[in-house]
Amino acid sequence: MKKQENNYFVVTVPGFEDICAGELVALGIQPTGTVHGGVMFAGGLKELYLANLWLRSATRILVRLGTVTARDFPTLFQRLSKLPWGRFIKTGTSCDIRVTSRASRLIHTGRIAEVCQAAIAKTLGEREGDNGKVQKIFLRMDDNCCQVSIDSSGENLHRRGYRQASVAAPLRETLAAGCLLACGYDGSVPLLDMMCGSGTFAIEAALIALHRPPGLERMFAFMDWPKYRPGLWQQLLIEAQRGEKSTLPASIIAVDNNPKAIAAAQKNLEMVGLADLIQLSCENMQQLQPQFPHGLMICNPPYGERLGKDASLKALYHDLGRVYGDTFAGWQGAIICPESELIKSTALSLSPLLRFTNGGIKVALLEKS
Ligand SMILES: C[S@@+](CC[C@H](N)C(=O)[O-])C[C@H]1O[C@@H](n2cnc3c(N)ncnc32)[C@H](O)[C@@H]1O
Description:
Layout: E1 6-12, H1 17-26, E2 31-35, E3 38-43, H2 45-54, E4 58-69, H3 73-80, E5 94-102, H4 109-124, E6 134-142, E7 145-151, H5 173-182, E8 191-193, H6 200-210, H7 230-242, E9 252-256, H8 259-271, E10 279-282, E11 296-299, H9 313-327, E12 332-337, H10 341-344, E13 350-358, E14 361-368
Parallel strand pairs: 5-6, 8-9, 8-11, 9-10, 11-12
Antiparallel strand pairs: 1-3, 1-4, 2-3, 4-7, 6-7, 12-14, 13-14
Helix pairs in contact: 2-7, 3-4, 5-6
The protein binds S-adenosylmethionine.
S-adenosylmethionine binds next to α6 and β9.
């Protein structure tokens, strides 16, 4: 029997498309294209499960169910009714339908969602009571073409399940992992985050270094589909566990001068079972001395915008520049922050590796030369 192939779309934070495409290639999956905010690939359930389990920089993964053209609601209903909804929606699962419409005759997104609900109900027939499950469905109407996608991930993939505690302005796990990958981090060199906050870089670095999949501990929307294959999923988990390292090839050091941040990071490290592997300490970054001649330093300093304007921020960036440029001169160094006046206070020569938005603020991953 021929394996059923689907077209998939990996949603990424804009700026991370190439990083995510590289991750797919490393999984043995060839991307079929890249657009602003996403990467396409084709494959069966194995490829879909692998991508959800392993992609560190992805936000979610959609299955392209089909595209229908419609300029009126009866046509939309009739054409949506022909899509194979039963492959993805069990009896009793409710549908959360998200609609966008642009340059189309049908612009009332609420009405489009209602028509889609009715089409699903018609296709699936008599439905039993609520089973408590919710399937997200995305409809994108553009130039009278309605592209229908089914979410396979459930909660956004940055929700790995380990973050129990955080302090102000934590970085999303997917962004932290994507930045590490953009710096070429593979776990083979020491890593230092001297402003670790809730420990996101240290934890994501450890997951990369140990070769542990970020999706190991969580549930996915595809687990509620009628054709879910638990045996295949278990096999992928077993293979992942077989390939996992028990010790870090090189040290991971996380430092912050705020005891509350260290307490939050400690809680998260315990949650993910990494407390014994990562060196965590409450220190001022100005006091740090390198334990190794080479390594990667990465940090996400306060920007001012989110954490409150602070006159001493300029001094902090100046000190950061001294630590990066002088004390750790032999280390590769990367900083995530806006490309504003503030960064000039570091007096470092920096070049952008990535540009993206973090919590609504335009930032860059800047690497020291
Ligand atoms: C934007 S937060 C980092 C968030 C972190 N990336 C996360 O995901 O949770 C900046 C951190 O820098 C720390 N910090 C500020 N000045 C510092 C200094 N001089 N030495 C060490 N840490 C400092 C703050 O306590 C704060 O936790």
